[in-house]
Amino acid sequence: MKHRYSAAATVVALLVAGCSTEVEESTAQSAPATPATTYEWKLVTTWPKNLPALGTAPERLAETVDAMSSGRLKIKVYAAGELVPPFEVFDAVSQGNAEMGHGAAYYWRGKMPMSAVFATVPFGMTAQEMNAWLHHGGGLELWRELYAPFGVVPLASGNSGVQMAGWFNKEINSVADIDGLKMRIPGLGGEVFQRAGGVAVAMPGSEIFTALQTGVVDATEWVGPYNDLAFGLQDIATYYYYPGWHEPGATLEAIVNTEALATLPADLKIMLETATRAINQDVLDEFTARNAAALKTMVEEHGVEVRRLPDDVLERFAELSAEVVAEAAADDELAGRILESYQGFLAEVRDYHAISEQAYINARDSVAVD
Predict the structure, then answer these.
(1) Using an 8 Å Cβ cutoff, are 321 and 123 in contact?
(2) Cα gap 100→92, rounded to integer Å
(3) Which residues fall within 8 angstroms of residue 216, CB to CB, at 6 or more apart?
(4) Angle at 234 (CA atoms; ends 230, 239), nearest 5 degrees
(5) What is the 3 state secondary structure string of the chain?
(6) 232 to each of 206, 236, 337, how far by Cα in Å?
(7) Are strands 251-257 and 199-201 parallel, antiparallel or unpaired?
């Protein structure tokens, strides 16, 4: 009997313990949760409001982060000029007046000559190559090192792909036609254009239409057919030149104030980075999907003349590009490392793409059947 009692007692004890555990778990599950901290951020952009791809990218980023975080991180987007002028976005984020910004790194070239490399380099990497360098070739680490003294953390947040060379109200038949030509063109491409004899003019996208229409500039580059059609540039210029030698794969950036980023818990940081990476690809996909149809509309409905830049113009631009990029990296240790990394990666990927992407496109075009 004693043995049987002991066994029964053991069973009862286990049942009681089990019930106790279930009650404790049930109580823990039904207890009111501590409210999660909600973060409300401002994001300022260099883009006009609702501009396809460029202007809508930060809006999609904010919506994605809000959904991923279940409303814990809310980002209010301000278009160019709504809170700060477009070219003051970097300063606003650096000074903490806005937690985030969205733009392009070549707009800050006055502060950091090598920042332009993280947007695009004339005759440099395509979008696919830039993404590979940034995320798997050490580029992002160098980018963050460059921005660190300003209290800003950059993330890739979009890419236009290869752009068009721009809109001209004058035919370009040789290098001589560049002399004295006033063109809206930023970044390293603007410096190249200047050295080729042109006059490079810097202005935000919102001012381009009026400047070209009134003769403030004789030519302008913007992005490509999808965005250019939205701007109405086909209504004020006749010649649409290619290829976009100056911006073969323009990376857009999301920039975050370092101190603001540090206040986020680990999961929100990961959500922000993941959402930004997704938007980076989504913007490129959107441009790829929409540019062809937009170009067809321009040609068939607006009579736009699509022209290729002459070989001597492209050759001259290429020569000057090498000079400009080398000079931007001179006498600065970090700039030198950035250029070495960029050029080294480009050399490797170019060799491979010669027998992969480029070779395939050439083969596809040579055997294409309508």
Answers:
(1) yes
(2) 9
(3) 182, 201, 210
(4) 140
(5) CHHHHHHHHHHHHHHHHHHHHHHHHHHHHHCCCCCCCCEEEEEEECCCCCCCCCCCHHHHHHHHHHHHCCCCEEEEEECCCCCCCHHHHHHHHHCCCCCEEEECHHHHCCCCHHHHHHCCCCCCCCHHHHHHHHHHCCHHHHHHHHHHHHCEEEEEEEECCCCCCEEECCCCCCHHHHCCCEEECCHHHHHHHHHCCCEEECCCHHHHHHHHHHCCCCEECCCCHHHHHHHCHHHCCCEEEECCCCCCCCEEEEEEEHHHHHHCCHHHHHHHHHHHHHHHHHHHHHHHHHHHHHHHHHHHHHCCEEEECCHHHHHHHHHHHHHHHHHHCCCCHHHHHHHHHHHHHHHHHHHHHHCCHHHHHHHHHHCCCC
(6) 12, 8, 41
(7) unpaired
Q: Which two tokens stand for residue 321?
A: 């590009």
Question: CA end-to-end span of the chain, whole Å?
Answer: 95
pLDDT in tens, the chain (370 residues): 333 333 333 333 333 334 333 333 333 343 344 468 999 999 999 999 999 999 999 999 999 999 999 999 999 999 999 999 999 999 999 999 999 999 999 999 999 999 999 999 999 999 999 999 999 999 999 999 999 999 999 999 999 999 999 999 999 999 999 999 999 999 999 999 999 999 999 999 999 999 999 999 999 999 999 999 999 999 999 899 999 999 999 999 999 999 999 999 999 999 999 999 999 999 999 999 999 999 999 999 999 999 999 999 999 999 999 999 999 898 899 999 999 999 999 999 999 999 999 999 999 999 976 6
Q: Give dist(CA 146, CA 244) in Å, integer.
A: 27
Nearest to 110 by CA among 83, 87, 136, 94: 87
Whether residue 243 is preceded by a cis peptide bond, meaning omega within 30 degrees of 0, is yes
The number of C-alpha atoms within 13 Å of 240 and in the hemisphere containing its C-beta is 23
Q: How far apart are CA 272 and CA 287, in angstroms?
A: 23
Instruction: Characterize the bridge pairing of strands 100-103 and 73-78.
Output: unpaired
CA dist., res. 113 & res. 170, Å (int): 31
